[in-house]
Structure formats: C-alpha cells, structure tokens
Inverse folding.
C-alpha cells in the first residue's frame, strides 16, 4: 500500500473505528468501502448480550426487590433495630440486609452488562458501527448515579440504540424517549398533567384529608425535564430559538408517558416496559414552535417528536455533533452543511448521513484528528494490545473512572465532553501514563515485538520520537507502556 493509502486505512481504524488491532490496518484495502460495509451489518453484540435481562424483566425484579425492602423496613421498625443500624456507621450498614439487597439482586447482571460492552469494543470487527452506537449512547446520555435509572442505561443502549443507529433518526428518537432509562432519569415517569383526571382525583383526596386534619400528601404535577432535554440536547440544540413556553407545552403533551406500576407488573398485565397512562395526560390542544397539535393522547407528543426530528435545526445540530466527533473539535462548516443537506434530503436517514461523512474529502484531510477520551484510550489499548478481559470487567471500569469517564456516569444529561480541552490537562495525562503501565502488563508476552505492534496499530503515525522512545525501553512491557502513553497514541488521526 502507498503511504496515503496506509494513512487512510489507519484513519479508518483509529479515528472512525475504535483503535486498530494489530492485523486491521494491513487488511483495509479500501477504507471508505470498509466503513460503509459496516453499516449494512447488524452491530456486533448478539452473542455477548445473550441472556441479559430485558428492561421489562429488570422492572419486574426491581418491583420485587422494593417489596422486600418495605417488608424488612417494617420488620426493623417493629423490632426497634432500624435506628440502631442507621446510627452504627458503615460497618453495620454493610451487614444490614437492606444494604445488601440490591447488590445481591442485580450485582451479577450489572457485571455481565459491563463485561459484554468491554468485550464487544475490544474484539468487534465492525468498530465504526460500534463507535456510532457509543456516539448515540452519549448523545442520549443517562447516568447510573441516579438510582431510578441505575439498571436501565445499559439496556437503553442494547434495546433502543443498537437496533436504530443506522436507520431513521425519528425511529431512534422515539425508541429512546419511550425507554425506561430516559423516562426515569429525567423524571418523566412521575409527570402528571395538572388538569388530568388523575390529578383531579388526587386533589379531591387531598381536600378530604385536609378536612380531617391528616398529614397532606405531595401533590402531583408537571415535570419539564424530558421536554427540555429533548429540545436542547436530543433534537434542536440550545440556540435554535425555542422558548420556555415551548418547553412547558411539550411537557404537557408528554404527560402520560411512563412505565408500568409495580402492581401492574405483579399482575402480569404488561408486555413492554413503556406504558401510556391516559389518566395522567394533560387534556387540550398544545402549541409548540408555532404549530398546533390536537389532543390525541399518546400520539400528541409523538407528533411533536416527529416534527422535531424533521426540523432543519435538528439536522444541523446532529450534523455538527457528528462532524465534531469524527473529524475535528471545530469541524469545517462545509462538512456540517453537507451532512445537514444529506439528513434533510433523506428524511433523516442516518445511514445516508454517515455515507456523506465518509465520502467527504474533509473527513480525510491531514487536519482531521480527535483526542481520545478516556474510554477511547482504554479501548484502543485493549484492541492494539490484544488484551484479554477475562471474566471481570472491574479493572477496566476502575481505569475508566480514575481517568474521568466512568461508564454510563456523565455529570449531566449533556453526556461526556467531546473536546480535547476537557481531557488534556496535566493531571489527566499523568493518570494516562499510569494507566498505560497497568495496561502494558496485561498484553500477552508470547511473540511480543513492541515496535512491530506500534507500526501495525499506528501506521504512519508511528513517528520518530515514539520509535526512539520504544527503542530506549529496557523491557517489552516498558516499551508497550511507552507506546500507550505516547502523544501519537492519544490522538485519533
């Protein structure tokens, strides 16, 4: 392969993909065709995810767990042990059955979820497709540090994003916004229209309690979180001109979008994890961004979502995010325009948009490069070093958390940053050096030639300073740590 062809193959594997495996760059004869072919295959993962619980199963088991928690709390109250346990500190809490219940019920499943995700990233033969899955997972960010969403972030990626990542954005959007992860993370499951039948029933009940002098219960009300994040993050973008009135009206239209109640799960009357509650829906016509939407129940908010997906502002917002993720922190305006036009001309067909991204000369320009986020860095080392994960994901989860990107735990619904300036501080780089040393110890030693591995995974980016540093290393593992910590390895070029 001539130098430019090798450079393009390295970019396909490292910038569009997840980091080159030792045999990957040499096997890419036509980089654009290699990337496009991955869009025509289902993403890897079926085998790794086999046997993991569905969201509906998690909902059922979580309801059972909460019943058991209530039983134990009542028992503790009756026997007078609750206060003592609470006051006795962390050692007693560790022995407390309440503290152990969640771990016992779901610990193995969460480890399997994490292990499957790392294994797929480390071994997939469709790394461009896998990067796109992860891109959308971050775009529709859900954080497991919020307890109601803890079990559902991984299933959101499995159930809503993987099946739709290369289809129409409208289908992806609807699948995500009706998933328990998003409904719980952004408090939509508890949102009730103030004038809905359910709210009126509760208000009458509260009025009777007030007459009797009972302690008042919390009133039901509207929650705007999901509506706001859909407009600001998932579709139009923050500077697209929507108003607070649009947020409120959209939130009213979304009332009723929820998940099954525990009693419904117990009776087995549901067959999917999303449930529309007509009694919680705010009645009436809604006006969002100057367009009127009649009261059609569930379809009212669905119609708004479809219009948002078709909007030029959404097309441009998504085009910019894709160009920024794959090409540069400040992507060329012409590339963003090209992707925007592809989106609008294809009715939001993401496969068409990706094809335009691949075919655009700007995507292969010498200036195209991205700094690896912590998880990008770890996955690239796993792939480049052919590191076996074994049966325990914990070491890699620990590395990710220490480097600042714990799995499914962004600081906000905006997801993890995609900008080099947020990951390139001196302390962050020092932690990468330490992680590189730990990763190098896990690389198989049989037949190991660090210089050959560096050339195979970096291609033309295996520059003279990195070559010299590897030659000076006193042992193969030290040479590998030098490779993983090198500036050349930190960038997707």
């Amino acid at each position: 392969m001539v130098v430019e062809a090798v450079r393009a193959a390295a970019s396909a594997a490292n910038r569009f993909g997840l980091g080159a495996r030792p045999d990957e760059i040499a096997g890419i004869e036509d980089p654009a065709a290699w990337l496009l072919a991955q869009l025509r295959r289902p993403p890897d993962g079926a085998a790794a995810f086999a046997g993991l619980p569905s969201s509906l199963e998690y909902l059922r088991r979580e309801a059972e767990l909460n019943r058991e928690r209530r039983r134990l709390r009542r028992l503790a109250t009756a026997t007078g042990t609750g206060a003592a346990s609470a006051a006795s500190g962390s050692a007693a809490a560790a022995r407390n059955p309440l503290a152990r219940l969640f771990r016992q019920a779901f610990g193995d499943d969460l480890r399997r979820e994490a292990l499957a995700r790392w294994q797929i990233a480390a071994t997939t033969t469709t790394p461009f497709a896998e990067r796109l899955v992860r891109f959308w997972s971050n775009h529709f960010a859900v954080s497991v540090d919020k307890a109601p969403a803890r079990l559902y972030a991984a299933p959101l990626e499995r159930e809503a994003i993987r099946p739709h990542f290369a289809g129409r954005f409208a289908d992806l959007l609807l699948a995500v916004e009706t998933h328990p992860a998003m409904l719980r993370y952004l408090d939509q499951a508890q949102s009730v229209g103030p004038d809905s039948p359910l709210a009126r029933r509760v208000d009458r009940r509260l009025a009777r309690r007030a007459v009797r002098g009972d302690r008042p219960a919390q009133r039901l009300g509207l929650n705007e979180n999901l509506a706001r994040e859909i407009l600001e993050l998932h579709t139009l973008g923050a500077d697209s001109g929507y108003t607070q009135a649009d947020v409120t009206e959209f939130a009213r239209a979304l009332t009723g979008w929820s998940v099954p109640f525990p009693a419904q799960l117990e009776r087995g009357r549901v067959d999917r994890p999303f449930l529309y509650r007509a009694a919680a829906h705010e009645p009436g016509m809604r006006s969002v961004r100057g367009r009127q939407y009649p009261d059609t129940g569930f379809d009212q908010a669905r119609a708004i979502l479809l219009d948002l997906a078709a909007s030029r502002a959404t097309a441009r917002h998504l085009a910019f995010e894709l160009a920024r993720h794959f090409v540069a922190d400040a992507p060329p305006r012409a590339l963003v325009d090209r992707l925007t036009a592809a989106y609008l001309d294809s009715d939001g067909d993401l496969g068409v948009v990706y094809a335009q991204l691949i075919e655009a000369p700007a995507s292969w320009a010498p200036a195209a490069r991205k700094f690896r986020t912590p998880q990008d860095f770890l996955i690239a080392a796993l792939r480049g070093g052919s590191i076996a994960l074994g049966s325990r994901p914990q070491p890699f989860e620990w590395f990710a958390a220490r480097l600042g990107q714990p799995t499914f735990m962004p600081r906000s619904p905006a997801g993890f940053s995609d900008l080099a300036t947020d990951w390139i501080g001196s302390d962050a780089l020092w932690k990468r050096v330490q992680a590189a040393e730990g990763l190098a110890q896990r690389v198989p030693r049989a037949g190991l030639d660090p210089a050959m591995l560096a050339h195979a995974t970096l291609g033309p980016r295996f520059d003279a300073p990195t070559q010299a540093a590897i030659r000076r290393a006193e042992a193969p593992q030290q040479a590998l740590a030098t490779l993983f910590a090198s500036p050349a390895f930190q960038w997707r070029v």
